Amino acid sequence: MHTNSAVPLYKQLVQQLIVAIAQGSIKHGETMPSIRDMAKQTELNLHTVHKSYKELQLKGLITRKANSKAFIINHHLAPLNDRDLQQISIELEQVLVEAYVLGLRKNQLQQIMNNISQKYSFS
User: Fold this and answer.
1) What is the DSSP secondary-structure string of 50-68?
2) Helix residue ranges, H only, 33-105
3) pLDDT for res 76
4) Long-range contacts of 52-58 (CB under 8 A, 24+ apart)
5) CA-to-CA distance for 106 and 108, rounded, in angstroms?
6) Is there a contact between 41 and 35 (Cβ–Cβ < 8 Å)?
7) What is the CB neighbour count within 10 angstroms for residue 117?
8) Per-residue pLDDT band at 75 (split at 50, 70, 90)
9) What's the confidence (pLDDT) of residue 123?
10) Torsion of CA 68, 26, 38, 62, to 10 degrees
């Protein structure tokens, strides 16, 4: 985690866990560490980890029941629904518009997309 980053720590943890899911190091049905254990592993506050887990739950990447462990949900098993597709489109557009304003060129964007696609084995 980068404490001097403009990105809040809970969002950094969310992103790290999403990458771990995408890379397959955390798999469908696998139990997530408890909030307390994750806080110890990451040296983050319990509230920060709880907020990260809540965010992952809202994104539909984990499922949690009250006073229960969290489990990974593998979305590769089902196609995206319209709501999820729209949300991804909105978030991607925000990133691309910002990159455009910063001077990203179309060929650079294509190279970035190719690199990411290869890294995570998109089909």
Assistant:
1) HHHHHHHHHTTSEEE-TTS
2) 35-42, 46-58, 82-101
3) 59
4) 52/10, 52/11, 52/13, 52/14, 52/17, 55/10, 55/11, 55/14, 56/14, 56/17, 56/18
5) 5
6) no
7) 11
8) low
9) 56
10) -40
